[in-house]
Amino acid sequence: MIGLGSYAFFWQQSDRVPEPLGLVDVFERTRALGVGLFQICDYEPLLAMSHAELAEAAAEARRLGLTIELGTKGVQPEHLAAFLRLAELFDAKLVRSMVFAPDFRPTLDEAAGYLRTAIGDYEATGVTLALETYEQLPSADLVGLVDRIGSESLGICLDPANTVAGLELPADVIERCAPLTRNIHVKDFAFARQPGWVGFTYSGAPLGEGLHDYPRLRAAIDPDARGINEIVEHWLPWQGDPDTTVATEIAWTDTALQYLRSNS
């Protein structure tokens, strides 16, 4: 299933725009685009919302017919347990996380211990925990960690764009992670020369216009046959002013949806 994630609305939810969208606003925009899946990913206000506010948002998602997934960072058992409770509230069947959190960097042995503690409850409730590929942890180490736990409820959220900063080729990451992939983050990327030709900027691009060989990823994963959701997000730099930035973000989302719908 094609979905949108919080990073597809990064600037539209930012305090840098005059009227940032709230969570329910984003649900409504998602549904208006004909999309039935939304991943609430790294959305800081989520854990500060009251139970009543969370219940209201979950009810609105159900009213709109939206399937919800969740995303966070970290593998501490208490943190993963908190997101499992949120998953139950939102009827979510997948939680994406990362091994490292901004203020918490366990060793692989520590991470394995935390995951063993947490994963039983995920298994019992039928929720999948998907750990994302990114530059701070080599994909071979991530695959080894997931294999070490050996649970059908633990897999990988594949985002090869992230791993380029760790000097990994996307094609290698795709091949390595394909058997364990349970979720896909969809965004394109490209390099551009800095002004004066001194260095490069590694940033986002409209899907299909950058360096990401997305057909290769789909061929390796076969998301339709395996029931793996594809979540659209962007690496869109600030475009100089709020109106231009928001308009560009909306246009990139339209491009991504058209691309995915025509190539599925």
UniProtKB/TrEMBL annotation:
Occurrences of domain Xylose isomerase-like TIM barrel (ranges): 80-254
InterPro entries recorded: IolE/XylAMocC-like, Xyl_isomerase-like_sf, Xyl_isomerase-like_TIM-brl
Cell cycle as UniProt keyword: no
Origin: domain of life: Bacteria
Keywords, alphabetical: Carbohydrate metabolism
One Pfam family here: AP_endonuc_2
Annotated PANTHER family: HYDROXYPYRUVATE ISOMERASE, XYLOSE ISOMERASE
Protein name: TIM barrel protein
